[in-house]
Amino acid sequence: MAAQSVREWTGIQKFPAATQTKLLELLGKLKQEHVDSLTILVLGKGGVGKSSTVNSVIGESVVAVSAFQSEVSRPVMVSRTRAGFTLNIIDTPGLVEGGYVNDRAIDMIKGFLLDKTIDVLLYVDRLDSYRMDTLDKQIIKAITDSFGKGIWDRAAIVLTHAQFSPPDRLSYEDFFGRRSESFLNVVRSGAGIKKQDTLASSMPVVLVENSVRCNKNDDGEKILPSGVSWIPNLVKTIIDVVSNGSKGILVDKKLIEGPNPNERFKMWIPLIVLAQYFLVIKPIQGKIKKDISKEKKAPWELRDLVAAKRRV
User: Fold this and answer.
1) Run of H or E residues at 116
2) Shortest CA distance to 191 belongs to which of 230, 235, 147?
3) pLDDT digits (tens, 9 = 90+) for 61-114
4) How many whole angstroms separate alpha carbon 190 and alpha carbon 203?
5) Any idea what DSSP says for residue 278?
6) Minimal CA–CA distance to 126: which of 169, 159, 168?
7) Helix extents (H) in 148-223
8) How many CA atoms lie within 13 A of 128 on its CB side?
């Protein structure tokens, strides 16, 4: 399993000064909350921009991305440290193969994460994908089955290719709103999230544009069509998720293997035995005794009963 040792986060120095200032302020906020490390899991289908987003946030080409290989083949953890703070980002293979959920990739990811705590899940897709289908719902369900429904309390949706012109004369804001709501509906349905699950039902949706053609503001920061500097905005969203009061997901052996079927109903065995005795065995015994008492006895049995009564 590919992993990298912890290195100094020098890539942050490649960002424009305004972006550096915002990032350091955000990391300082975490330090004030006594959080000195963060582990981010990046999941999604292949070719949606997972690896490119990791590279953009780190500020280095830490994960190979090319037109011929759009994703990593195995999980990779990139670790960077800055001013006593450690950032771990785990890039992963695509969750779809041949039109189906890639169970092998999911098992590989779970094995890689053993004994690690997921602080934030970034589920990545493309803004310019128009439809959500059954396969998307199956992916969400597979993630939920693997890590529990609580993973969505620690999640944010990331939509890449944000520098995109909507079709049919829709405004950018309208298209983004519809795309976000459609996506969130699939997540809620696939994960079995109810309205009362307030954290998971209000997952943030953030936009990302990894292209070198991304527009920039006067400070040289990469910006969204709305003018927002997207890298600090993504990091701020991540920190908001960490600070929402939910707990990180510890991926231990029990979570990976699931509940032991032999232990699942063990506590109910005494109650089941008692129920069987009073509802099944005892009524049968009573019926047998009643039938015996009504049964016609042979003459010799009656003679013996009479003789026994006389002796008394």
Assistant:
1) strand 116-118
2) 147
3) 988 776 556 567 899 999 999 988 999 999 999 999 989 999 999 999 999 999
4) 14
5) I
6) 159
7) 172-191, 198-201
8) 13
